[in-house]
Design a protein that fits this description.
Strand content: 5-15%
Radius of gyration: 22 Å
Structural class: alpha/beta
Order of helices and strands: HEHEHEHHHEHHHHHHEHHEEHEEEHE
Shape: globular
CATH class of the largest domain: Alpha Beta
Largest sheet: 9 strands, mixed
Number of strands: 11
CATH topology of the largest domain: EreA/ChaN-like  fold
CATH architecture of the largest domain: 3-Layer(aba) Sandwich
Number of helices: 16
Number of domains: 2
């Protein structure tokens, strides 16, 4: 009886807070709601869905053109995304096309950023930036912590040209990690259970030396920032791999806190008027306190941005769908596959949104319109699909209990979605340690 009352009441609310979403003009209510906010976080329920990428692109284009947003920060590796950043800003020798730059993204899962949807968006960004002054060019950056070896390589390449004295410190740090480079940190994690510090001292010393020398580096200002960021990644990646051994929420929290630190650094770098668009999985951008993640003492970027910057304007936008197809793998490092996403389970948010009558199938929900949220206080399952996916098992673990109006400020619901279009056919074999049940 309680369930029936809850569902009936939620259905009554959906009609009052949703509007059809078919074209870019239908985003007007969201753009108006965003107003002068400085942080807009755009989610996704999977890492392999065409519509999530294209609608995030449409929203981002409007925010850049109409609201003057400064950069996009994504759930991707810093070195790879920084190369794309230099391409879209029209730097010399930064690549001939977005396709060429993105094709070089070779860390599994390659399809997350090496896809045709991002090629199109990157070319739009490059066109938008053409003719603008350096400080007004829109950037594209990676927030993640996984790129320890790529970041070390980038540091050494920079220091070899600009600071031979500090180069030796970087070489020593890299040599410390070399015995563990074959499996993306998993052997380092195992070794750290016997020797707790391993390479911690080396990367902390490297970061300190680079930070001390930053005022002396008189090369490209953004390149100096990138070198310091790569040193910070080395420090936090080392912490992350050590935390893997302990299990629980610690490694997840190190990762999301690193992403939050990176976001804050980017805002500082872009100045007092900076505005940020963040693209990540719903599990990172939807406030963790409105889910069962909080029971495990897990934090995420959406929660941290709200806590640290609420007075500057923060808008969290979740994404979801009822059924469709997706690109994913059946295990880490697997060949990417197009998989069917089954219809959402009964009673889930996606199920309720699909069967609601009175609005179009594709909907934009603005939760500010809810005056009385008491009927929505109990968590309801909200689908989350990661890079590792088993559709046949979905009903047993791919739903995060969520209070949607507390987890997001707005929600984009696409009734039926399609798989995105990867540039690569096969992965390169690298594996990333799993840090969450959905591989997000």
């Amino acid at each position: 009886m309680e369930t029936n009352y809850k569902i009936k009441s939620i259905n009554e609310y959906i009609g009052g807070i949703s509007s059809p979403l078919e074209s870019t003009i239908d985003l007007d209510p969201l753009i108006e709601y965003i107003g002068d906010a400085k942080y807009v976080l755009l989610g996704e329920a999977t890492h392999g869905t065409h519509e999530y990428y294209t609608w995030r692109s449409k929203i981002s284009q409007r925010l850049i053109k109409e609201k003057g947003f400064s950069f996009i920060a994504v759930e991707g590796d810093w070195p790879d995304c920084y190369r794309l950043n230099r391409y879209i800003k029209n730097y010399e020798q930064a690549g001939k096309s977005a396709k060429d730059v993105l094709h070089a993204f070779n860390r599994w899962p390659t399809w997350m950023w090496a896809n045709w949807e991002i090629v199109a968006f990157a070319e739009w960004l490059k066109s938008h930036n053409t003719g603008r002054s350096v400080e007004k060019k829109v950037g594209f950056y990676g927030l993640d912590v996984y790129s320890l070896w790529e970041s070390m390589d980038a540091i050494i390449a920079y220091l070899r040209k600009n600071d031979p004295k500090t180069l030796q410190t970087a070489v020593e740090a890299l040599q410390c990690f070399e015995p563990y480079s074959s499996d993306e940190g998993q052997s380092y994690a195992r070794a750290s259970s016997f020797v707790s510090q391993l390479c911690e001292k080396e990367v902390i010393t490297l970061l300190a030396e680079i930070r001390a020398k930053v005022p002396q580096y008189n090369t490209d200002h953004e390149h100096v920032f990138s070198t310091e960021q790569n040193a910070l990644i080395a420090v936090n990646a080392e912490k992350y791999y050590r935390a893997m051994v302990q299990g629980g929420a610690k490694s997840w929290n190190i990762r999301d806190r690193h992403m939050m630190t990176t976001l804050n650094r980017l805002m500082d770098f872009h100045g007092g008027n900076a505005k940020a668009i963040i693209w990540e999985h719903n599990t990172h951008i939807g406030d963790a306190t409105a889910t069962d993640m909080a029971d495990e003492r897990m934090v995420n970027v959406g929660q941290l941005v709200r806590e640290q910057h609420k007075n500057k304007g923060v808008v969290l936008v979740g994404f979801g769908s009822y059924k469709g197809s997706v690109i994913a793998g059946r295990e880490w490092g697997d060949v990417m596959r197009k998989m069917i996403v089954p219809t959402a389970i009964n009673g889930s948010w996606e199920h309720l949104l699909h069967y609601h009558e009175g609005t179009e199938k594709n909907k934009l929900l603005l939760f500010e319109k809810i005056k009385d949220k008491r009927v929505l206080e109990k968590p309801i399952g909200h689908r989350a699909i990661g890079v590792v996916y088993h559709p046949e098992r979905e009903h047993y673990g791919n739903y995060v209990p969520s209070v949607l109006p507390m987890r997001y400020d707005a929600f984009v619901f696409i009734d039926e979605t399609q798989a995105l279009h990867p540039l690569h056919i096969k992965p390169d074999g690298h594996q990333i340690p799993e840090t969450f049940p959905f591989g997000v």
